[in-house]
Structure formats: C-alpha cells, structure tokens
Give the backbone structure.
Amino acid sequence: DQQVKQNSPSLSVQEGRISILNCDYTNSMFDYFLWYKKYPAEGPTFLISISSIKDKNEDGRFTVFLNKSAKHLSLHIVPSQPGDSAVYFCAAIGDSTNAGKSTFGDGTTLTVKP
Amino acid sequence: EAQVTQNPRYLITVTGKKLTVTCSQNMNHEYMSWYRQDPGLGLRQIYYSMNVEVTDKGDVPEGYKVSRKEKRNFPLILESPSPNQTSLYFCASSFSVGADTQYFGPGTRLTVL
C-alpha cells in the first residue's frame, strides 16, 4: 500500500504562471512533509518542508500547503521559471513508531515552457 | 565543501558477487539513509541510521545490509546481488530526522547481470 501518492506524473506550465504540484498521503501520523527537486543525473535537493502542526510554509517563490483533514499537500511555485523544470518528489517523514522512516511519492515531472 | 559522496558511481557486476557501495558525509550528520530508485518510481528507503551503531529497516531492506561504525560512513552491502537489485541508489544524511534537510549523494547506478 503506497502511503504517499503523487497522482500526476507530469505537469506543463508557461513561464511566469503558477505551478501546483499535489501529493496525497494515507498515514495521519506523519510528522513532517518535504518537497525535493531532482535534475537528471543528480541526487534530489531539498526545497521546502512543513510540520504536521502547520498548514502553510513559504520560502520565496515556493509555498507548501497542508490540509490534514484531506491528507493532502501541495507545492505552489510562483512565478514558474524554465530552471524549475525537474522532477519533484513529495516525502513524508516519521510516525509514532518509526521516527527515521522516509516515504517518497513517485514524483511529478514539471516542464516550464519559455 | 559540505557533501555526501558515494563510490562507485557506476557498477556492473554479476549475480552472487558480493559488493559494497560506500557513502561518506563531511557534515557531522547524525542521520544517514539509503534509497533505491527504479524507473517511474520514487525513492524507496532501504535502511536508515539515527546514529552510530543504530540502524533500522526501511521499506525494502531484503537483500541488503548496512553498518554504522563511525558517524561519517554508512556503507551499503549486497552479500549476494541479484538482477532485481539493478537500480539507482542514493545515500543521504541530515543533522537529525524530521524537518531537517536530507543532503543526497550523486547516486550509484548498479547493474546486476
């Protein structure tokens, strides 16, 4: 049973517009949620995180929203830039019995067109 | 420069021949973890370590071993590799678990024939 799901394998947006990437989870005990960005032939790099006790976190062009009742989080990128084109992974960290466990979604490939 | 290094970056081997993928970090991080990534899938956690001499299974630990004898190193051992372990492997580290950023290595592409 996949506990973290990114249902959209790909997303294409125009430069300057908003990109919205979505992630759903099933385990209500997750402590933190993180977004990573990955370019080909490189390891993932951290973008932004949010604690399960918050509903929003913002860092520059990136904002993550958490809806605990819906078990849903989203990453907003405004404005989108061509350099944002990459694979984005949502990850959930820890629960009451396994603080060190990390569970990743399958990723969404974002393409930002000039 | 703060970094996570993995060696080798590429490896082609044969079924049953024991191998070790090394992982080292120079940031004095307590937490380290190994992941595998297969085509079209996200990263699946193999093993993680909260500190020296403390290791725990992730979601896909079968066929793998790890050790954490010192803080900076976290090798991944495949005692008897099989073709279904052909994958892209990433090592990561962070100061602690949770909101702390995990820094990832560049990846090791392993092919088991």
Notes: The interface with chain B takes residues 4, 6, 9, 31-32, 34, 36, 41-46, 49, 51, 89, 91, 93-94, 98-107 of chain A (CB under 8 Å).
